[in-house]
Protein: Recombination protein RecR
Amino acid sequence: MNTLPNNLKQISLFLERLPGIGEKTANRLAFYLLRLPERDLKEFAETIGSLKSKTKLCRVCMNLTEDEICSIDKDTSRDHEIITVVEEVLDLLSFETGNIYKGVYYVLHGKIDPLNHIGPEDIYIQQLLDRVSELTSSRVNGLKKTRIKEIILAMNPDMEGEATAMYIRDRLKEVKKHNGVYFKITRLAYGLPIGASLEYADYMTLQKSIEGRNEY
Ligand SMILES: [Zn+2]
Structure:
């Protein structure tokens, strides 16, 4: 490692900070970068440089986007009356990869985790409740109009995920009662092992769990 030129060493050390990358892989990747055409490297560097400033949260669903509203919420062919609530953007990507779901999402960016001092107010639960409240309380011609058919709670099947789902379910029930509306609240039917992560679930398993979801 010490025999590497300084800039190559720096890049290797940076790559080593990425998840799942050890020293050997980091070195290999750094050498690979060195062999790329200058133009590709510059483009890559510019993209990385603007990653933070260009990426923001969709103001509808908190998904990551370069615009105000993400491509999923802009897609009129999707069913906007079915909302799947996920912990992380990576979970959303798992559903999208399998092309098994045609509704929209809401991303919490975390889960309730008392041991690590993460409470409901630390993730985007209130924003979700506000959104649901707004969608179900609008009046058309004096009649109440529900613009949500179903909310699918797709938190991971671990203790924190379960606690988060229960908390949201109870708060959503309050919204239903308050607005005098009905929509289904469901939880994925887990063929997934307890403690498994949605991020790593194959799409067949995800498809089964979304098809067999239960009212919660
Ligand atoms: Zn969105």
